[in-house]
Amino acid sequence: MRRWDRRSVFVALVSVAALLAGACATSPTQPSGTDGSTTSLSVSPAAARPVELPRGGRTVFPRFRMVALYGAADGGGLGALGLGTPDDAARRLEQQADTYARPDRPVLPVMELIVTIADPSPGPDGCFAHPTNLDDGWRYLRAARAHRQMLVLDIQPGRCDFLNQTRRWQPLLDQPDVGLALDAEWRMPAGAVPGQQIGTVSATEINTVTSWLADLTRRRALPQKPVLLHQFTPDMITDRDALASPPELAVISHTDGFGSIPDKTTKYRALNNPRLHTGFKLFYTEDKPLMSPTQVLGLQPPPDFISYQ
Fold first, then answer.
1. According to the UniProt entry, which residue ranges have a biased composition of type Polar residues (predicted)?
2. Cα–Cα dist 216/210, whole Å
3. Residue 232: other Cβ atoms inside 10 A
4. What pLDDT sits at residue 76?
C-alpha cells in the first residue's frame, strides 16, 4: 500500500507543477536531423491541464495493462514491429492489444522500437553497437500518436554502458508518451562479442539510468514512464534486490526468452521480482506453442506488460 500512496502523492505534485509552469501549453519539437531546424510535432492541445498518457491519466499501472509489438525499423528482421509501415504496425498492434482488453482493465498499446542495435564488430566507437536513425523514432512516434499508443525505446548497448547509450535518445525521451527498455542480453563485458555469449549488467548501472530518467521526467512534469528490464537468466541482472523503482517510473521486470509453455511459465515465476511490475514476452514463431491471451493472463501474477516479437 505504501508504494501506491507514494506514487499518488508524486502525481499530485507534478500535476500542480505542470499547471504552474504551463508545461503542456507548448508543443514538443522534432529535430530535422540535417540542418538543425525544428518542426512542430502534432499533439493534442491541453493548455489548462497537465500532459497525460495517450489514453488518459498520468500513471501507467494499475489502470492499464500494456501490450507491445517489438522490433526495429528494418522490415521485420528483428521483430514484428518492423513489418510494413509504422502505421501498418500500429493497426496490427491495436488488433493484438484488443485481445487483452478486459472490462476492469483497459489496454495501452506500445510500440517497442529497438533504437540501439548490438553488432558483432566494434564500430568507430568500439561499442559493438550502433544507434539507428533518429528520424525513424519520430516516424514511429507519429504513428503511435495517431492511434493513441505509446513508444518505448529499446537499447542494446554492446560494450558501452547503458546511460551513455540512452542519453543520445533524450529528444524522444523528453516526450510525454515515450518510455525505455534496457536489454541486458546485449550488455557485453570487456572482451565479449554480442551474439557469442549472453550479456549481463549490475543493478547499480541500471539505477544510474533510472535515476537520470526519473529526474528528466520530474523536471519536465511528464507522466510516469514505463521502463522495461529484459531478462531471461538469473544472472543477466546482478543484485536484483538493489534495483531502484522511482515513483516517476513504472519499472518492469520483463521475462524474456522463447520456448515451451512449461519452460516459459517456470522462468516467469523464477524471475518475478515482487518489488517491480511484471512483464512477459511471447515469440510468434519461436514459441512452441504460442500461448493464448487467456493462458498469459492465467499466469500468477498476471503480467502488467506483455510484448510480442
1. 26-43
2. 10
3. 18
4. 83
How far is residue 94 from each of residues 45, 88, 111, 295, measured CA to CA in Å? 24, 10, 10, 20
Check if the beta carbon of residue 111 is closer than 8 Å to that of residue 148: no
Residue 253, CA atoms < 13 Å, CB-side half-sphere: 27
Q: For 81-120, b where at least 16 C-beta lie within 10 A, e where not — what string?
A: bbeeebeebbebbbebbeebeeeeeebbbbbbbbbbbbbe
174-187 exposure pattern, b = at least 16 Cβ within 10 A, e = fewer: ebbbbbbbbbbbbb
Q: What is the pLDDT of residues 189-235, one digit of tens each?
A: 999 999 999 999 999 999 999 999 999 999 999 999 999 999 999 99
Question: Do 221 and 50 contact (CB within 8 A), yes or no?
Answer: yes
* 8 A C-beta contact, residue 172 and residue 137: yes
Q: Nine-digit cell at 180? A: 525505455
**Could you tell me the domains of the chain?**
63-308 (3.20.20)
User: Do residues 160 and 125 touch, judged by C-beta distance below 8 A?
Assistant: yes
pLDDT digits (tens, 9 = 90+) for 121-163: 999 999 999 999 999 999 999 999 999 999 999 999 999 999 9
Provide the residue type at 268 as one letter. Answer: Y
The pTM for the full model equals: 0.85
- Pair 282, 306: CB distance under 8 Å: yes
CA atoms within 13 A on the CB side of 293: 14
Tell me the pLDDT tens digit for each residue of 207-219: 999 999 999 999 9
What phi and psi, each to the nearest 5 degrees, are found at residue 142? -60, -45
Low-confidence stretches of the chain (pLDDT < 70) are 1-50
What residues contact 124, with CB distance under 8 A and at least 6 apart?
none
Give burial (CB, 10 Å; 0-12/13-18/19+) of 262. exposed
* Rounded distance between C-alpha atoms, residue 63 and residue 7, angstroms: 13
